[in-house]
Amino acid sequence: MALLSTFMLLVHLIPVNPVKEDGLNPKSRKRIMPDPLTEPPAIDPIYEARVYCNVPSITERSMEGHAPHYFKLVSVHVLIRHGDRYPLYAIPKTKRPEIDCTLVSSRKPSHPQLEAFVRHMSQGSEAQMDGTLSSLPRYPSHSLCEMGELTQTGVVQHLHNGQLLREIYIKKQKLLSSDWTAKHLYLETTGKSRTLQSGLALLYTFLPDFDWKKINIKHQWSTIFCSGSCDCPMRNHYLEEEQRRQYSLRVKNSHLERTYVDMAKIVGIPTRQLRASNPIDSMLCHFCHNVSFPCTKNGCIDIEHFKVIKTHQLEDERERQEKKLYFWYALLAIHPLLNQTVNRMQRIAEGKKEELFVLYSAHDVTLSPVLSALGITEARFPRFAARLVFELWQDGKKPREHFIRILYNGFDITFQTLFCREHNMHSSKPMCPLEKFVHFVKRGMFSVFNSTNYYDACRRRPF
Asked: Which residues contact 20 (CB under 8 A, 6 or more apart)?
């Protein structure tokens, strides 16, 4: 599993196109996060990189919390990617980008509650945290960022997320009362400081100055949050096949290879070593923080190198949508997490008043397979601080009926999902019946494997 996670960090994993035979024209579906005023008509690697950076600027539009007035919001599940981070990899023989990971309110980007967040985090000794989480710092503090460390930008991104969700779910929808207790929350994060800190930043503005005694954060060792259901040989098989597809596409790209050769000469190392250092990871940090690309005595890595590699990533995403290897991987990888979500929703629909707000603080390799498994073919690769929200609503006129909405970065994608495309989105109840989601997770996800359950699907080789 560790090997799989390491590989997946090296590449952009984007949802594939899970169904061609559904009769829907993919061109008719809007791309997630469209902006008709500024989005270029053709794929632009620089524009796509800016979207990925997600530098906080203006208040974003959001469709969370929208429902007919007689509906009651009864549960919210939020799955986030950590915020902006320092690179995980360094380009050999070059100077690391000088990014300051201390939190300073006068440095942009900032947030009105940044200083209060730091103060509150320093008082968190009473929080209950699983295992090694308690030994992790609750906010970044190095004057020169460590590898993979959350930056101030990353903290601010999630302070914005929490503030936005508070306005909708606490102030408007009254999801939690003022006397909420620990049992009303479910918080889970991987064991990286960047995911713990991202979750805490969002939680701080969602529930300002929360009582640390009410906070219980669970540790998830797996980046796909498979908990005790991680043994799945066919999931690993499909991921290996996807890796082969990616390799095949890369070796065919002569322009990309020439770019790597040129960069390797500048740095003064063999091309293979340069490629293995995953230079796009470090280059994205330079790009997002407006820091010049590294130079040596042999020349400079420049924006043209960056554009070639980024363009290849976008082409890889396109090809992935034409093949189903990643989709098959995603269905098996993310079933345990979706199954946990469905089970919790069913308990709440039956009247249980626990775990009303759920927060999973995770990675791109968590969100990406969720989007793919749901069938969201037009979604961009999860940007820094991306959020995927599952809302559970109760019909006030028919209290036994429950419906869900699914939103990605504020955009309603409910009717782009595999299980709710056929539902009439223009009906008086513009949401998806909970039963459709339950059936999809309990049975529908396995039909492509000619199976009826997770155990069989993980062991049967149908293709």
From this structure: none
Amino acid (one-letter) located at 133 = L
Pairing of strands 411-412, 402-408: antiparallel
Residues labelled catalytic: 82, 364
Tell me how far apart the alpha carbons of residues 387 and 69 are, in angstroms, rounded to a whole number: 25
As given in the structure block, the two tokens for residue 290 are 């407006």
3-class DSSP state of 1: coil
* φ/ψ of residue 81, rounded to 5: -95, 145
Nearest Cα to Cα of residue 57 among 208, 160, 165 = 160
Asked if residues 329 and 239 have their Cβ atoms less than 8 Å apart, the reply is yes
- Give the SS3 label for residue 335: helix
CB 108 within 8 A of CB 153: no
pLDDT tens for residues 268-277? 999 999 999 9
pLDDT by residue (tens digit) across 440-463?
999 999 999 999 999 999 998 765
pTM for this predicted structure: 0.90
Strand partners, 190: 220
